[in-house]
Every structure is written in structure tokens, then in C-alpha cells.
Amino acid sequence: MGAAAAVERAADVAAEAAEFLELYHGERRLPGLSARLAEVREEIALTGSYRHTRDELAYGAKVAWRQSVRCVGRIRWAGLKVRDRRHVTSVAGIAQELAAHLAAGDNGGRIQSVVTVFAPDQPGVGPRARIWNDQLIRYCGHRRDDGSVLGDPGQVGMTEAARRLGWRPPPVPGRFDLLPWVIETAQEQPTLVGVPRELVREVALSHPEHPWFADLMLRWHALPVISNMRLRIGGVDYSCAPFNGHYLGDEIGTRNLGDRDRYDQLRAVAAGLGLDTSREDTLWREHAVLVINQAVLHSFKLAGVRVSDPHTESELFMKFCAQEERAGRPVHGDWSWLNGSVGWAALHAVHHRYYDTAVPNPNIWPTDRVYDPSGVVKTTLRERHDTARAQED
């Protein structure tokens, strides 16, 4: 990075830092803003970044969730459990903390919202640590010789990437084989780590009115831990910060199990229901997806695992909007993400509009996949950091 670019970047970080610290001190009604701003500006001038205090990190992560435009469950933002693990920098240490995150998030089936924050990105270079998986619990997508996929087609690229690193699938592959983690740091090459099987709670799906549904042998894991998004707080990026809430039923029933490019179970369920699938005006797809969603909600509740239905969550989101407006804060949102796919026309959030299109910070941002669809990795972190050091020399 050139000197001019570094100065410009430091100025941007300082501006975001000031905005965040003013928010933090103002909402928490804390003294000492001027002194903290001076301290942070001096640190940025020297290093290009600054270190959050534990309290700043915790509050920033919660506000990032509060302002996340894609999340309908933000009414729970203040209850987020923040695990500060910035001191953990090795692959082995990160893997151990990911296992601890699974246990904390699962909470005996009473899923609680958790984020584990590892070391911040290096200014001008990028992440110091990275998890390749988009979620900590995912099922393999095994590509067969005929081009078809056994398992989750959405994970074919990740499955291939793991195989290129030396991972081997089970002798008899199945539809719900757990993917290993791939973790890398600026010092260590991408490393395969097996997911602790005993920490993965799964729910077998059945339907309260259709006994044949259980014969489909469908199941899903209880805990959605997103692991490939970037947490940004006051100008500081944390690219390794996995977080979870709990599942909304149609995330599993409609998207994961119903989508054509995922498990694609609509025709199987329609066959069990005896529906006419020869033409679209019978609305057989809508009927089938509703039954899958009923099975998900029924099965998770039967297993004692926390799950939400779209109508309840939509009502809670409107309550959140009212709370934010009373606090004088605009509610930012991506309409297409905030309305469930089942019964969406009757959801309260459908009628809410978001006129401020800006996305505020702190926030949680999507990142590009590390690998291409065939599993080939673009650039490792060690290569990126080695290049940055060579340019400095």
C-alpha cells in the first residue's frame, strides 16, 4: 500500500472510529469521550488502526446485529453473548474455540445467540484468520460421475475444496455427511479440522398428520452458525467472527430442503401427498413446501430445539421497529430478506418500508468465497501477507 493510500485509509478509520465512539459513549451514557477519541486518533496515526476495549467490542458487536439489514430477529440484539477471543491466533486454538461456540450456542437445545470474535484484520492487508465454511455446520455435496449430487448441491464447491486439501468422504457417502472445517491464518496454511460430532445436534423430521413423511429420512442440524461474514466496528474489520441466532423454520423447510439447487424435496413430498405435478396451476409446489415447513416446526419443537415461525418473528420485528423509532434510530432493512417465504403476504413486515438505503456501521458484511465452484482456492492468507511484507521491504 502506498503512503498516500495509507494516509487516506487511516483518515477513514479515524472518522468511523469517532462515529462509533460517540454512539457508544452516548448510548451507554459514559464519560471520557474526548480522552478516548484522542487516544484512538493517536493509535491510528501510529499503526493505521486501533484496539477496541472489551466493552467497546461487545457493544459494537451487538449494535452490528441491531443494524444488520438482512436479519428479522434483531429484537434480541441486546442479549447477544460476545466471546472475545482476539488473543487466539493459531489454527488449533481457533478450532478449540469453534467447538466451544457450538456448545454455547446449542445450550442444550435452548439456542442462544453467540458471536466469537477473533483477531482483527491487518490494516491494508486483510484477515489474520479465516474460516472457509459459510456455516460451521454444513452437509457435504458429493458430485457423482454422472454429474448429479448426493447431499447438498450448495456445498459442492466447499466439498471439493476440502478434498483438494486431502479430506476423504466416508466409505459410503450419504445425504447428510458433515463437512470438515477449513481454517487458515496468516502464519499457517489452510488446515482441515473435523467437526466434533458430539456437539452437532440434529433433528429427524416427521409430520404430525402424515406418517409417511418420516420415511423420507430428512433431518437438519439445530444450530446455524454463520462463519464467513465480516464484522465491522468503528473502522476495524473482524473477518473471523462466527455468529449464530436460531433457525426460522422456513430457512430449513423452504430454502435448505425445498430449493431446486439445494435438497429439492418438493416433488418427493408432493408424491407422498398424491398431488398432481403435471401442471403448475394446481399449486402443488406451494402445498408441498407448506407441509415441509409444518414438519420442521413440529419436529424441532418435539425435540425441544428452539425455532421460530415466520408470523411470530414478523410480529416481533415490528415491535423492534417501534422500539428503534422511539429511541430515535432509523430502522435499516433489506425488504427481500426480512419477509419469510411461507405466508409472506400475511406477514406484518411486508408492509414496512425502509426509506433510508444507507447501511450503517457497525454492521455485518458478506464476503467473497475463498474458493471457486470447482474448489480451487484463489489466494491463501499466508500468500497475501507474504506479498504485503515483500512490498514493505
From TrEMBL:
Checking InterPro entries in the record gives:
NOS, NOS_dom_1, NOS_dom_2, NOS_dom_3, NOS_N, NOS_N_sf
Keyword annotations for this protein? Heme, Iron, Metal-binding, Oxidoreductase
Entry keyword annotation includes Iron: yes
Work out whether the entry's keyword set contains Translocase.
no
Task: Tell me the ranges covered by the Nitric oxide synthase (NOS) domain, including all copies.
Answer: 70-77
Q: What is the lineage of its organism?
A: Bacteria, Bacillati, Actinomycetota, Actinomycetes, Micromonosporales
GO molecular function terms listed in the Swiss-Prot or TrEMBL record:
oxidoreductase activity
Q: What is this protein called?
A: Nitric-oxide synthase
- Cite the EC number: 1.14.14.47
Top-level taxon: Bacteria
**Organism, as annotated:** Micromonospora purpureochromogenes
List membrane-spanning regions.
none
